[in-house]
Amino acid sequence: MTRRRLLSDWLVPLAVFGALALVPKLNVSIPKLFDQPISSPGTLQLLAACVLFGALALTYDLQFGYTGLLSFGHALYIALGVYLSNIAITDWHWNFWVAILFTMGVALVVSNVLGFVSMRVAGIAFAMVTLAFAQAGAVLALKDPHHWTHGEEGLGADYTKLPHAFVGIFNTKNLYWLALAFLAAVFFIVRWSVESSPGRVWQAIRENEQRVEVLGMRPHLYKLQAFVLSSTLAAAGGIVYMLLYNGSTLAVTAPNFTLTLLLMVVIGGAGSRWGAVLGGILYTYLNDRLVAVGSSSTVEGLPHALRTPLSQPLFLLGAIFILIVFFLPGGLAGIAARGRPSGLRRLQDAIRPDHGPTAPQEGA
Amino acid sequence: MAVAAPARTLLSVRDLHVHLGQSHILQGVSFDVPEGGVTALLGRNGVGKTTTLRAILGLVGRRGSVQLDGEELTALATHRVVQRSVGYVPEDRDVFTGLTVAENLRLAERDAAPRYDLVYELFPELEQRGGQRAGTLSGGQQQMVAIARALLNDNRVLLVDEPTKGLSPALVADVARVLERLAELTTVLLVEQNLGVVRKIAHQAIVLDQGRVVHTSDAKELLEQPELVRRLLSVGSHP
Amino acid sequence: MSTFLLLTITGLGLGAMYFLIASGLSLIYGLMGVLNFAHGAFISVGAYATWWSELHVFSGVHSSALRFLLSGLLGLVAGGVFAALVELVLIRPLYNRHIEQVLVTVGLQLAFVALLVGIWGPDAKAFVVPAWLHDTTTIAGAHIPNDRWVEIAAAAVVLTSLQLFLRRTRYGLIIRAGVENRAMVQALGIDVRKAFTLVFAIGGIAAAVAGVLSGVYFNVVGPDQGTSLLIFAFIVVVIGGLGSIGGSAAAAVLVALTQQYTNYYASAGIGDMVVVLLLGLVLLARPRGLAGAVVGARA
Fold first, then answer.
1. Which of A20, A311, B142, C199 is the most buried if burial means most Cβ atoms within 10 Å?
2. Distance between CA atoms of C119 and C104, rounded to whole angstroms?
3. How many domains does chain A have?
4. Cβ separation A363–B94 shorter than 8 A
């Protein structure tokens, strides 16, 4: 292995994760960025969420950025992880570890079935179908069958059945480490799978699915692989989510949830090594902090017209997202890409509609 | 046969490059199309003849220069190129199957006075079938629509791509006759595999191979040399 | 029997709204290849503009029917103008970059809903309509709320107008041809892009009508209404076939009626899931939808 690869493949990630692991030990205050010292439970909760969403964004990037599958229903699998594990533990009184295995098993089966059906169509239609399935899941959660999901109230987790290490405010640091471990695991799994030989086919499919077919391989099978891996990892993330937030609520079933993942991936840089992670961390942080900014005294003093949009973090984030799509399609990671086509640029063919010959970029 | 006076160049293509996906299809194509008559663009299957026409129109991304009567076309978007009086009869006809014959023609109207009288004189059947959906027409009839579309307007040059493809011999003869008539009115750049048609109506021949122009000459001169024809086009000479 | 009739008419009313949204989505996708998530914003513009102008612009008008009509008209215009602006500013500069176009509409949708929440709060607002719309007409023993008739009539008017426009005008001709083969239209010397703004505006107006009608149907306007209707409209569009107005109409009726019957005869909420099941079945049998010409697995 060349020295450069050794560095970027192993040393850098391990250094980053190692550094992040030290955070709960550092009683340091960063005034502008955080209200309290970074080792305090409140800040650790936020940082854990940032790290978790970095991981979740990466699971989404696996299908979107690497394989070119645009799904609007990724949240379904996260929600599955969140709800099913909680229901098994709290409603059915199962053992924690059994519940986890069960959840992962269900996620594996469901993603295979739904993935197979969804891939009967491609491109835009695929996106809409995944949205529809996610919506069905949302309806199911709302309907509260057998009083398992508890509908709009949500279901708090039965903390007596959770491992002690994850319960209680002073154990927030454990949850942080759990989220970080999950991120590291997802990072290495995604990296390994993308560089494996099926992974190379995924990337080829992203560039030009027809060529893959012409070369004698069946893209459906490979796309399904990527989809199932991505969805199952997402479900695992859902379990971590459930632990972090101590229960399950309808928020994870909203269509918005998948869309925010999409924003994270694009802002960070689709299909790049660190882009999705960066996007997830940054988005989660901004989403939290912008609320604080919105109600701060500086903003309160602004004229009403300016104050209103600024008080809504999603407005700002949506606007930033649009600007990035226009001016920085490679996302933040694209800034470092040095001329290689990155991010959205590589996805050109992924959802070209099946028209008659489409005209190329026309002269202005 | 009188020797024609050297005609001025109407369309001038210089160093045209086109990349499609990974392949470098046109690798510096250069040729001149003289005003008047039919210039045939020949070559083996897949060599880039259709791509050349599409590149002139701007339907594919290209690098190089295309000048019509001195005006640079590569700076223009497709619809603007066509508005400079360039007509196009595409390889697969590309008539709009959901529209009627009359609607197909109406859509193609560009000039203030479209030449319906000429079109219906050459293709009386189109007038009869005006209300028929173009998708229900036969291949030959669709070809008529495709040519009629280009005929409606007073074009300076017509880019015609394999108009006889898939047609019966009788229809091929019909199309050749129509093209001859067209050549009296305007300049035609014709991509054609059927050498019989080429022999009958073409004045000049340009041969493409491996993304470049490899031969230019009078059309009849070329076709009278079967060895040359076989080498360039990999076919025996047709009747 | 009377229940069945009530369910059917209600279903048709709901289907009317789905069709209004789906028709715009279908045209926009068919012609431009853009999946317009921002359609939800167009719906909301129609709803909120109507609600707002009824309170602030036309509050002086005595006749409640006239007041509602004028507000509705303003809502429609607002929807159309907003949609045209979106196309010109956000979509056109990204010509042929389909993924970026989709993403931009997603971002717009999210930002727009946030804006609505920022300005008017997350709660739904009561929608003021002429009392007549709340009354019922009795037919064959069924008490049918009058708003259903308005919804069905509105959809019928829009459907007819659309068909007339597409078949009788030059732009309609350009759009029909462009849905089939955009490049060939360009090769005839026509700048298809002019039709894009028009198609967006038409979609915006139709969506705005749906927005107003949804306010009548649900009695409130809320920031989430656009998004939830949009999802069902997406399902309708895929089942009916992207690019086909007729397909959208048929699928809208199918989906809405299925929803209504199942929600009542089986159990509330199940209808929504059955619709998704229906989508799955249609996809397994006919990936291109009932009438679709331009989408499907890249087979």
1. C199
2. 22
3. 1
4. no
